[in-house]
Amino acid sequence: MSSNNSSPTIWKGDLPKIGIRPTIDGRLGGVRESLEDQTMNLAKTVAELIASNVRYPNGDPVECVISESCIGGVAEAAECDALFRRENVGVSLTVTPCWCYGSETMDMDPLRPKAVFGFNGTERPGAVYLAAVLAGHTQKGIPAFGIYGRDVQEAGTSTMPADVTAKILDFARCGLAAALMKGKAYLSMGGTSMGIAGSMLNYDFWEKWLGMRVEDIDMSEFIGRMNKGQYDAAEYEKALAWVKENCPEGKDYNSDDTKRSREQLDSEWEDCVKMVLIARDLMVGNPKLAEMGLKEQAQGHQAIASGFQGQRQWTDHFPNGDFMEAILNTSFDWNGKRTPYIVATENDGLNAATMLFGHLLTNTGQVFADLRTYWSPDAVASACDGYQLDGVAADGLLHLINSGPATLDGTGQQKDADGNPTMKPFWDITDEEVDACLKATTWHPSITEYFPGGGMSSRFATLGGMPATMTRINLVSGLGPALQIAEGYTVELPKNVHDTLDLRTNPTWPTTWFAPIVTGRGAFTSTYDVMNSWGANHCVMTAGHVGHLFITLASILRIPVYMHNVAGERVFRPSAWNAFGTDNIESADFRACENFGPLYGRA
């Protein structure tokens, strides 16, 4: 079910597929013949499992390509590889119920994320092949994930155990995320914002670790297109009418001396809508522009993520990017429900990359925020007439808030199957949930002292009870990128308590109260320690406890994780990581990533 609205997208055409490699004992004369049907049927079962559960960002089921024959030796391995290259296979999953010749049947492509599923049955030694071929992958420096069920099964069974299913789907989602990034671009709209290190873009990171390029434009491109009318005028009128109907303007928190006139605010609204159209067109292109004779502008930059510098060279003179960033990061707009465009505030490319990870792993909108404040229970009680935090917030709260408004999905108005707040892929969002997200959000004239050029900023408070994961990629001199992860829950405070705390900072920005799960160890000894150990001023929040997916994707790309609270049994990395230590697996992760180097690294 792909999007049927008219929003331009690059998630179309020949998207990367997942390749299934059925390997088999190559000995003809009775052995191979007895295994052909069982092996190919296993491949078909796995392909159906993946296609039924994993989707592209546009909502279509992921396509699987099965080798045209079972692979019993190097000739058939080469034929399968040729098929995979013709079919744009970006992820490889080898499956077998039996012994096979390891080095002759393995996938040797070093850039294709890969896993091997060895069926746990006593009739044939599928586990023996799994161990042998994984040893070959480790020895040859081509890491692969090993998938092996806990319980012995009957030969030929079509039932897939829950533990095997979970690992296959986790690998498929993470491998696909890596494949979807390859060859795409990050669009830097502007440059460094207010000295923020994350907006000092590092091309090596994007190219060597993610397989992407960085495209650069100056923010003057916006005002140029606005002045020349280089946007779809009909869509602009449609968008402006939708905004007037669905984006209620809230209180103006500016002082009387700094309030802007009604005429000025109306003009800012118009410019804000134009900025949305222009930023989107710059990212992914727009065939409407070609119809207007703007064939170069119509192409876009093949960007699956972007950042807008804004402050201060733009915002001192023109409306800020708050409305633009909020709407583009949301799973719907005036054209209906659609996949979010990933846009980072202040051109923080590292937060953009983290948002991109979360989006590709879950197909949902992502919350961009400052990790603004740690509120201890005592501090909350002191500020709020003795109010006592309890439940998941008993150890204190982290205030996620920022001048770059988060996705409107972050209101928490979308509900999971049990009625709990969440953020969903666009194809699962109901019309009622779209309406609820819009009604939960108010738009306020930006604070003039911060933004002399004006603009409209959003305000909402995320509903409590949402399982969520907070993440951030940081760059470390001499090390490269490293990832932080904190699973936890959103918290809903009584209105008077929320208002008291929220008004201590800028009230025109959206707020999420987040309580990480503390473990009593390391950076998760307490909520304060999570705040104190965070590596930057920004973070990303993704719906769900999906830290394990971030860990798996990071290992595919060779990005070490230096802070997480994911239970050990949920951590899934390539089998080669075991060779770097099995006791302190956080340290082993660093050694493995350093040893193998970035996925697309060049000497």
> Tally the helices: what do you get?
19
Tell me the helix content. Answer: 25-40%
Global structural class: alpha/beta
What integer is the average pLDDT?
95
Low-confidence stretches: none
Q: What fraction of the residues are assigned to beta strands by DSSP?
A: 15-25%
The counted number of beta strands is: 22
* Form type: globular
Q: How many strands, which pairing sense, and closed or not: the largest β-sheet? A: 6 strands, antiparallel, barrel
Radius of gyration: 25 Å
The neighbouring-strand order within the major sheet is: 12-13-20-19-18-21
- What separation lies between the terminal Cα atoms? 42 Å
Can you characterise this structure?
- It is a single chain.
- This protein has 603 residues and is α/β, with parallel strands linked by helices.
- Helix content is 35%, strand content 18%.
- The strands form 6 sheets. The chain has a 6-stranded antiparallel barrel, surrounded by 4 helices. Strands 2-1-3-4-5 form a 5-stranded parallel β-sheet, with helices on both faces.
- The radius of gyration is 25 Å and the shape is globular.
Feature tags:
19 helices; single chain; 6-stranded antiparallel barrel; globular; 22 strands; 603 residues; 5-stranded parallel sheet; alpha/beta
Task: Give a short synopsis of this structure.
By secondary structure, this protein is α/β, with parallel strands linked by helices.
